[in-house]
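User: Run a structure prediction on this.
Assistant: Running it now.
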Amino acid sequence: MKQNQLTGFPNNFLWGASTSAHQFEGAWNEDGKGLSTADMRKTPQGVTDYKVASDHYHHYMEDIALMAEMGFRAYRCSISWTRILPHGNDLVPNEKGLEFYDNLFDELLEHHIEPIVTIYHFDYPVSLIEQYGGWISRRSIDDYVHYCRILFERYGKKVKYWLTINEQNMMIVYGQSSVASLFYGEKIKERKTVMNINHHMCIAQAKAMAMYHEMKLGGLIGPAPNITAIYPASNLPEDSLAAINYSEFRNTLYLDLLVNGEYPSALWKYLSDRNWQPDILPGDMKTIVDGKPDWIAFNYYFSECVRAYPKDKASQRSENTDDPNVTFMAQSGDKPKIAENVPNTSLPQTASHMAIDPVGLHIVLRMLWDRYRLPLIITENGCGVPDTLESDQTIHDSYRIEFLEKHLLSCRKAIEEGVQLIGYCPWSAIDLVSTGEGCSKRYGFVYVNRDEFDYKDLRRIRKDSFYWYRDIIRANSLHADKQ
């Protein structure tokens, strides 16, 4: 809805940016850290691994000083599970690992930056997979809760903002590949197994949230899915229904379960008709109902466009479980009404061929607020492209500024319409190793001087976007001429 006048952001708005432990810290085998799936993950040829990353482990004080210079009020990071519990479920945690995060949080607070901490961000303990298959087993629930208790007891007075699992839905929607890729290469093709993984993750999060509330630590805790706007490819009614079905599976299944305590009815019918529904034991749903989130964090990069899957193609592709254009729900031989991803030719793209859709962010903000009525924070939103370090040691990333500025305008419009958006933490604070695309695809406000396999000096260099974001935060608003 068009607003006559757009004001600034709320005075207590949490301006910041995000990273994750395995993509940023490096020090993969130092000070007692155990192996995680990120350490074991196979990377494409010509792409670096995560062993050194941006070496934040040894540069954290310098990095936080840069965040403070930009004016951050918050910093969304994650804790490496195996830095705390090398085997994933050790009875006695690794003190060196605990000390690192103590030092990190103390340094942030010294600079008046609130830590927003993701408990699990794609770096699952290898030992737990070897012991019992990881999230496939219900044992994973208790081990996750054990890990959370250690974090809450140690950092509960320092950290007031917690996120349970990053992008659970991405691990499930693309379950035949993405869930498996977290388990360093093994593919999980059994759809019922993938839905059990999802169910176990939800129970684990609900138990952790209930435990956090019982400990009366006074902060906020909630999930961090990846949410996107889903458009029908045409004005055909079948395409609109396909968009609803796909959005339910991609976006709202996880939040409906965690916030409302129930599975979406149409999706449940679809799963149970095919015997893909998770195994729900007595007490599971009560556990989920009893552990509600206080807020919702979400990641947004682009929108998607889908059409109803053509019936005459269903049998042709029913056995092709690796087709990237077909959603999880399309993988069956009984020709169901399903969705197929198609390009949206109406949208511009970044240099790395990612659709640019700030209006989609506006749509997502309205949808999440209207559906769940919980405070929202954006924990990832960014423009990942190669940057050029000029001969004068500058990086002119006007494309990143333009991308973020348009998305911030959508944030401000949504706030004016009543959406309770309390923070914006784009991806990423400083350059890191991008998932599957190495350090050549950069997102940060700060350039890290390294190549895929040449670590150089890892020097931190401010990009043009660094100064732009600093000015936005200082003004607590976009420039007046950008309304």
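The first strand starts at residue 14 and ends at 18.
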